[in-house]
Amino acid sequence: MNEQDEYWMRRAMTLAARAELEGEVPVGALVVLDGNCIGEGWNQSIGSHDATAHAEIMALRQAGQAIGNYRLLDCTLYVTLEPCMMCAGAMVHSRIRRLVYGAADAKTGAVDSVLRLLATPGLNHQVLWQPGVLAEACSTQLSRFFQRRRAEKKAARKQAAGQ
Q1: Catalytic one among 56, 82, 136, 152?
Q2: pTM of the model
Q3: E-strand spans in 1-109?
Q4: Residue 162 — pLDDT band, cuts 50, 70, 90?
Q5: Within 10 A of 138 (CB to CB), how many other CB atoms are there?
Q6: Would residue 22 show up in a list of annotated catalytic residues for this protein?
Q7: Which of 72, 81, 86 is nearest to 133 (CA)?
Q8: Are the beta carbons of 12 and 28 closer than 8 angstroms?
Q9: Could you tell me which residues are beta bridge partners of residue 36?
Q10: Which residues participate in the annotated binding site?
C-alpha cells in the first residue's frame, strides 16, 4: 500500500458517502490513469432501478467515455468494497491493469472472499489487485450504514405495531 493508493481510496470513500446520501449502499469507485481520475461512480442501483448500477460499473462507463475506448489499459480502479462477480467480470473485459479495494465482502466478494474470479486461469486478461487499502475505514463506513438501516426498520416495525 502506498500514499497514492490511500489518497484515491479516500476519494472513493467520498463517493461512497454520496451514495449513502442518495439512500444507496455506500460504495464508491474511481478509475485513475496517469495520476488523473478519468471516471467516478457510486452505487445507484436502488434509485435507478438498475441491478448493474454498481459503483465500479458506473466508474468504468465514465472512464470509457472519457478516453473513447472501453479498453482501460494502464488504468487502476479504486473501490471501497471488494467487487462482486459482475464487477470483477467487467474489470477483465475492460482490461484495467490494477484493482485496489478497501473492505472485504464475505457475502459476495469475487476477488478474494467468496470467489477468486480474477485468478481464474485462462482468462483473456489478468488484473493485478491490492486488497485492504483503508480497509477498516471502508468497513466502518459500510457497517454504520447497515446499523442505521436496521435501526430504522426496527423503529418502523415498532411504530406500525403500536398503531
Answers
A1: 56
A2: 0.93
A3: 28-33, 36-42, 76-81, 98-103
A4: confident
A5: 27
A6: no
A7: 81
A8: yes
A9: 33
A10: 54, 84, 87
